[in-house]
Amino acid sequence: MRLTPRPGRSDRPHTARTALAIPLPRRLLPVARITAATLTAATLTVATTVGVAQAAGPSPLWPRGVDISSWQHPYGAAIDWNAVHAAGVSFVYIKATENSQYTNKYYAGDRDAATKAGLAVGAFHYARPSASLGTAVEQAKHFVAAIGPAQAAGFLPPALDLEETGGLGPRPLAAWTRAFLEEVESETGRVPMVYSSQWFWTDRMANTREFTRYPLWFANHNDRATPNTIPGGWPGWAVWQYSATGTVAGIASQVDQDVLCCTPATLATLADGTRSEIQKWHAGAGLTALALGAPVGVENRAGGGGRWQQYANGLEFWSVATGVHALYGPISSKYLGLGGSNSFLGRPVSDVETATAPGGQQARFQGGWIYWGPATGAHEVHGRILSTYLGLGGSGSPLGLPTSDEYSVPGGRQSTFERGRLRWDAATGQVSQLPPGP
Question: Which residue spans adopt a coiled-coil conformation according to this UniProt entry (predicted)?
Answer without folding.
Answer: none
